[in-house]
UniProtKB/TrEMBL annotation:
<keyword id="KW-0812">Transmembrane</keyword>
<feature type="transmembrane region" description="Helical">
    <location>
        <begin position="9"/>
        <end position="28"/>
    </location>
</feature>
<protein>
    <submittedName>
        <fullName>Uncharacterized protein</fullName>
    </submittedName>
</protein>
<feature type="region of interest" description="Disordered">
    <location>
        <begin position="174"/>
        <end position="194"/>
    </location>
</feature>
<keyword id="KW-1133">Transmembrane helix</keyword>
<keyword id="KW-0472">Membrane</keyword>
Length: 194
């Protein structure tokens, strides 16, 4: 009889330890990632196609993936944003000149959030692809910059809007020849901000 009582006690103790451990793990996950925090993996893919005369089509795919188990939403009425900008780099820069990601003559700007009627919902594990086509002169270097911002209400301690931001950028050459017809991934760098 004693062996059964000891075994019963050990099983109950192990069950209690498992329940408490599961609760501590859930609390830790919530504390680390939060219930409303968001993450989005952005990537750019580009293609250059012939168009007419000395013009080419720059096809830009802004790919985004929500790797988290909860959804998040971009809403223009909350002052969130999701934009794509294409800028022409200076044609004859001196050696050693550094270009900032969002520097150069603005060729095109696209409000991807407005194209989604001001409300863009990213479900868990959802993958999105927003494609835009820009007409550009041949023999041009361009900088492509896509960024996503979520407004965290209320403002920060200084009264300024508090944004979490995620961005990706790439540099693409628009060739003089009849263009590239093969699909290729642009050189890029993901950069979370917050």
């Amino acid at each position: 009889m004693k062996k059964i009582e000891i075994a019963d006690f050990v099983i109950r103790l192990l069950t209690l330890i498992a329940v408490v451990s599961g609760g501590v793990w859930a609390w830790y996950q919530y504390r680390e990632s939060g219930a409303t925090d968001w993450q989005n993996n952005l990537a750019l893919k580009t293609d250059v196609l012939p168009y007419h005369d000395n013009l080419r089509l720059l096809v830009v795919h802004v790919e985004s993936k929500n790797p988290r188990p909860n959804k998040f939403e971009l809403r223009s009425d909350h002052h969130d944003s999701f934009e794509l900008r294409v800028r022409r780099l200076v044609p004859k820069a001196a050696e050693g000149q550094v270009f900032k990601e969002d520097e150069g003559d603005l060729i095109a700007r696209s409000d991807l959030l407005a194209l989604a009627d001001g409300d863009y919902e990213f479900l868990p594990a959802a993958e999105m692809d927003d494609m835009q086509v820009v007409v550009i002169k041949e023999d041009t270097w361009v900088s492509i910059f896509a960024d996503m911002k979520i407004n965290n209400n209320p403002p920060d301690a200084k009264g300024k809007p508090d944004y979490d931001e995620n961005a990706v950028s790439a540099v693409v050459y628009i060739p003089k020849s009849e263009g590239q017809t093969g699909h290729r991934k642009a050189a890029q760098r993901d950069r979370p901000r917050g």
